[in-house]
């Protein structure tokens, strides 16, 4: 069948991968994805052609997947977390549209980083929340700043993906300064690195002190709303129940 599965394998630990994701990988002839992730699931890729996508740019990867599917292979394109959240699902569908291809594309959802990180922290997302990527590689920084202002003004809990890399260090500082215009210095902040995979670590801090802790590209930062509080070693955003 001419088919591509765009699969989210979750945060990394195999127990957080859905059975549907596993079935799709098992049903594929070719698996395209980062070696680091595929190395976690060797038993699922036995006898399959594995292409390490570390070597290829996103659009090249989608074109390759489509070429292989057009030739008759069933292909799995693997993303971490959920493929529809800063993953490969959008680009894959766009490339298919541009090439006017009849290959069937099925998106398989996965546990995204913010869900995994929230579980580590307790229950910080219990009310309306927003996810903002601080990466300005594909999005203008002005647009990102505007979204930070509006999300803060709207009192959303805010989760930051791609918060800081070696070459991108000022964005997290600017983001915090924007949030401080709307929120108290004591606002709870959770920083989770490698949520639900090897090397998991987390820190519960405040908006005032968050920059004193290590933040990098393996980290999600969750900033509470005006009602979020810390109880013991957990962060809770109340839903509003009368206790
Ligand atoms: N598709 C992925 C997100 C890709 S963007 C998903 O749905 O999770 C990459 C960013 O996601 C990283 O910079 C980091 O901010 C976050 N991330 C992904 N996995 C993570 C994990 N296990 N723990 C903490 N952050 C993670």
TrEMBL record:
Q: Give GO MF terms, alphabetically.
A: methyltransferase activity
- Domain Tetrapyrrole methylase, first and last residues per copy: 3-210
Transferase keyword on record: yes
Work out whether the entry's keyword set contains Methyltransferase.
yes
The alphabetized list of GO BP terms reads:
cobalamin biosynthetic process; methylation
Coiled-coil stretches noted in the UniProt entry, renumbered to this chain: none
**Top-level taxon of the source organism:** Bacteria
Pathway linked to the protein: Cofactor biosynthesis; adenosylcobalamin biosynthesis
> What keywords were assigned to this record?
Cobalamin biosynthesis, Methyltransferase, S-adenosyl-L-methionine, Transferase
| Annotated Gene3D superfamilies | Cobalt-precorrin-4 Transmethylase, Domain 1, Methyltransferase, Cobalt-precorrin-4 Transmethylase, Domain 2
Q: Which PANTHER family match?
A: COBALT-FACTOR III C(17)-METHYLTRANSFERASE-RELATED (PTHR47036:SF1)
By its UniProt entry, which NCBIfam families does this protein fall under? cobJ_cbiH
Query: Per its record, how is this protein called by name?
Result: Cobalt-precorrin 3 C17-methyltransferase
Q: Which organism is it from?
A: Anaerovirgula multivorans
Taxonomic lineage is: Bacteria, Bacillati, Bacillota, Clostridia, Peptostreptococcales
């Amino acid at each position: 069948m001419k088919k591509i599965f765009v699969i989210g394998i979750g945060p990394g630990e195999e127990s957080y991968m859905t059975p549907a994701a596993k079935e799709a990988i098992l049903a594929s002839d070719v698996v395209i994805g980062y070696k680091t992730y595929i190395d976690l699931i060797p038993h699922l890729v036995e006898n399959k052609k594995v292409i390490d996508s570390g070597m290829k740019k996103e659009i090249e990867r989608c074109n390759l997947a489509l070429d292989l599917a057009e030739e008759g292979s069933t292909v799995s394109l693997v993303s971490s977390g959920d493929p529809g959240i800063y993953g490969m699902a959008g680009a894959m569908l766009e490339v298919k549209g541009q090439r006017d291809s009849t290959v069937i594309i099925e998106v398989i959802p996965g546990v995204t980083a913010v869900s995994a990180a929230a579980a580590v922290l307790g229950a910080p997302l219990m009310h309306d929340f927003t996810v903002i990527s601080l990466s300005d590689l594909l999005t203008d920084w002005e647009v990102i700043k505007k979204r930070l202002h509006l999300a803060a003004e709207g009192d959303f809990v805010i989760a930051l993906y791609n918060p800081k890399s070696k070459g991108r260090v000022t964005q997290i500082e600017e983001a915090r300064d924007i949030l401080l215009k709307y929120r108290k210095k004591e606002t709870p902040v959770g920083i989770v690195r490698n949520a639900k995979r090897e090397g998991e670590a987390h820190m519960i801090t405040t908006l005032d002190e968050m920059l004193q802790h290590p933040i990098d590209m393996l980290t999600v930062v969750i900033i509470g709303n005006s009602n979020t509080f810390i109880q013991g070693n957990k962060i809770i955003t109340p839903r509003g129940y009368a206790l």
